[in-house]
């Protein structure tokens, strides 16, 4: 899909779900901007049809599979993926709209709200124990194995099967290069000085970085990383070395940089670490004072944008991603018992 500028000429009718994915607004974060003297802008990906930035990856991966003939619209097909939740939601909704089935493998430790949503929209949900990536039982490895087994049965069942492989499938980053990055450029009238966001697959950071650097090589690209992830170390030293831990879901890698991120390494200028208390401060502040309810990864992103603004100094425009909404984490980051058990701050209205 092509990016559209946020102007009054924007069409008011789009063609189905695919036409509704993308073209999200940039929201000026008033308090973060006032505190730093910079313009800090959040791309409102929580406004996507499936509620997260991963709708873009879901659409990009399935459309790419159709272009390659791996899936054929109107013919039986199965999309298999291992995910922390949001990519599974995006893939399932796009698959539904195009007539395919989806099998989604998720660690059972992910938020109850995401698991319930996946069931509600018709995903064949397979829950697994959390395992390290090297373990055959890891959710990514499990999803790959399911896809291979189904593909081996394809002649008998007549269904085409793809393993979405969001971490290594470069259609993920390509979608952001074609849509998210150009949208940011147009919405800031080319005035963006820096972009920062956290990485799960690295597709958003790599795709946006390519698009922005192609238009202005001086745009600063900074990876935001929660504690417990080794990607900060990877950017700074070339070695994935994790320290600490975090309650955030779907971002950070402790053992290896995923393929989408590796493909964009040359475009990344730096990395910043963000602790859970720093992220939660921004999540609760946005909700209480700006009416924006966002999830954990968005908190990491905004905290990193503030740190980057203070490094760069006043007068700069910094864009980040508001990845998904807070309702998806009601049982965790908006649950006072969950927060207290981990020694994390509880906002007054929850206490």
Tally of distinct domains? 2
SSE pattern, N- to C-terminal: HEHEHEHEHEHHEHHEHEHHEHHEH
Number of strands: 10
Number of helices: 15
General shape = globular
CATH topology of the largest domain: Rossmann fold
Report the end-to-end length measured between terminal Cα atoms. 45 Å
Structural class, by secondary structure, is alpha/beta
For the biggest sheet, the summary is: 6 strands, mixed
Helix content: 40-55%
Q: Rg, please?
A: 19 Å
Mean pLDDT: 94
CATH class designation of the largest domain = Alpha Beta
CATH architecture of the largest domain: 3-Layer(aba) Sandwich
Q: Please report which band the strand proportion falls in: under 5%, 5-15%, 15-25%, 25-35%, 35-45% or over 45%.
A: 15-25%
Low-pLDDT stretches are 1-8
Give the strand order of the largest sheet, numbering strands 1, 2, ... along the chain.
1-2-10-7-8-9
Organism: Roseicella aquatilis
Cofactor: pyridoxal 5'-phosphate
GO molecular function: transferase activity, transferring alkyl or aryl (other than methyl) groups
Keywords: Amino-acid biosynthesis, Pyridoxal phosphate, Transferase, Transit peptide
């Amino acid at each position: 899909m092509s990016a559209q500028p946020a102007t009054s000429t924007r069409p008011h009718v789009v063609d189905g779900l695919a036409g509704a994915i993308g073209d999200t607004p940039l929201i000026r974060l008033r308090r973060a901007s006032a505190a730093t003297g910079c313009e800090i802008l959040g791309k409102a990906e929580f406004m996507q049809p499936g509620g997260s930035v991963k709708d873009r990856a879901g659409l990009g991966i399935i459309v790419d599979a159709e272009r390659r003939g791996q899936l054929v619209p109107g013919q039986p097909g199965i999309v298999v993926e291992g995910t922390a939740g949001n990519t599974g939601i995006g893939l399932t909704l796009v698959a539904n709209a195009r007539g395919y089935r989806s099998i989604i493998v998720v660690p059972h430790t992910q938020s109850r709200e995401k698991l319930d949503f996946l069931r509600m929209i018709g995903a064949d949900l397979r829950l697994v124990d959390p395992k390290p990536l090297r373990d055959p039982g890891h959710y990514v490895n499990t999803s790959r194995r399911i896809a291979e087994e189904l593909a081996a049965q394809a002649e008998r069942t007549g269904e085409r099967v793809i393993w979405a492989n969001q971490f290594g499938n470069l259609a993920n980053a390509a979608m952001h290069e074609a849509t998210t990055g150009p949208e940011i450029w147009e919405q800031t009238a080319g005035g963006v000085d820096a972009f920062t966001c956290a990485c799960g697959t690295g597709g958003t950071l790599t795709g946006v970085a390519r698009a922005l650097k192609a238009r202005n090589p001086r745009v600063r690209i900074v990876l935001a990383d929660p504690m417990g992830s080794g990607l900060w170390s990877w950017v700074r030293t070339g070695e994935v070395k994790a320290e600490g831990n975090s309650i955030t879901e779907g971002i950070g890698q402790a053992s290896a940089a995923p393929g989408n991120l590796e493909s964009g390494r040359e475009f990344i200028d730096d990395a910043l670490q963000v602790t859970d208390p720093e992220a939660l401060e921004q999540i609760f502040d946005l909700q209480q004072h700006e009416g924006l309810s966002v999830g954990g990864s968005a908190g990491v992103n905004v905290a990193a944008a503030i740190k980057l603004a203070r490094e760069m100094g006043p007068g700069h425009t910094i864009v980040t991603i508001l990845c998904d909404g807070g309702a998806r984490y009601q049982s965790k980051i908006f649950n006072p018992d969950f927060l207290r058990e981990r020694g994390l701050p509880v906002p007054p209205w929850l206490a």
